[in-house]
Amino acid sequence: MGIHRSASIVVVALALGLPASATAGEPASAALAEAIAAAREGGGPFRLRVDSLSAAGVRSLELFPSGVGIWNGRLQLRPDAALRRALLGALIEGGFPELAATYGGRLGGSQEGAALRVIRRIELELGGLAKSSVQLAEGEQSAALERLAETLLDLAATLVPEGVGADDLSDGLAKLAAGNLAPESFTLRFVELPPPGSGEAGSILRIAAGIATRQLYAPGREIGVPVPLALDAESWAGLLEAFRTAELANLPLNLWAEGQLELEVAVLEHRRTIVARPFSRLSPADRGPAQLHFEALAAALRAF
User: Are 304 and 205 in contact (CB under 8 A)?
Assistant: First the structure.
């Protein structure tokens, strides 16, 4: 389920990596309250994101339908059924269904085209419904939204001591392969454009929140609809093995390619970006180990 985006909203804490978003077409509060209560009673799946800048500092939680949670972008949490019910209960008791979509903003002037700072956000998706409530830095401040966000984060914070992190990207990939980290802790973006003048279209492969998609990408001509890809155990293991073999963390940031390739991989907060194109300082004849490793990795991503 998508979150509607607004270009006029940006996040004050960039380290959170939040999508700048606001939800349009909010569900009726009664219907949402019933859906939350049903999920709390029956243990149904839901997705929850909470971000807050307060006296406690910058804190964030993203809880996926699988039950896996990510704390501050750096630790994986595994909330049990009791804690998930407590989070849903807090949403009901905190009046989340009745909260406004947006609080604050500049007074006495248009907000269109102006950057607005988001200091707090709660987003929920469950039972086919989606709602978000956002606090902007200027203007009206919602004490109810602040209390609820801090309550949800305090509940999740009890799991932080047993959370699983990664020392670096290599350690994160190894923990993914060993099953100590879940696919939800991994993100990938692989953009491939053919050489100029070829007339061919490129593609974008994305993996996020345990979901893989590929879409056609021809800048200035066509951007296709993302098509879901299977992310079963076999394909997931093959992908991780391709990264291990390529020694991703040791690859240089720039490599050679006939077209243009951009690979961005992250495990929790550890991220690496590699760009390959016809750099003038690089020669296609100089196919050292790093170049060969990257070409093999790119081939595996194309075949994914």
Answer: yes
Residue 129, beta-bridge partner list: 126
Structure letter (DSSP) for residue 68: -
> Residue 267: how many CA atoms within 13 Å on its side-chain side?
22
Q: How many domains would you assign to the chain?
A: 2
How many angstroms from the chain centroid is the CA of residue 17? 8
Q: What is the pTM of this model?
A: 0.84
Please check whether residues 95 and 177 belong to one and the same domain.
no
CATH number for the domain spanning 213: value is 3.30.1560.10
User: Distance between CA atoms of 53 and 44, rounded to whole angstroms?
Assistant: 29
Cβ neighbours around 285 below 10 Å, total: 6
Residues spanned by the domain of 127:
9-162
Q: Which of 111, 140, 162 is the last residue of a domain?
A: 162
Same domain membership, residue 261 and residue 241: yes
Q: Which residue has the tokens 């006939």?
A: 258
The Cα-based distances of 298 to 248, 260, 268 in angstroms read: 11, 12, 22
Residue 3 lies in a domain: no
Tell me the pLDDT tens digit for each residue of 265-297: 999 999 999 999 998 888 777 768 999 999 999
Cα 24 to Cα 88, 124, 269, distances in angstroms: 22, 13, 30
DSSP per-residue string spanning 245-266: HHTGGGS-SEE--SSEEEEEEE
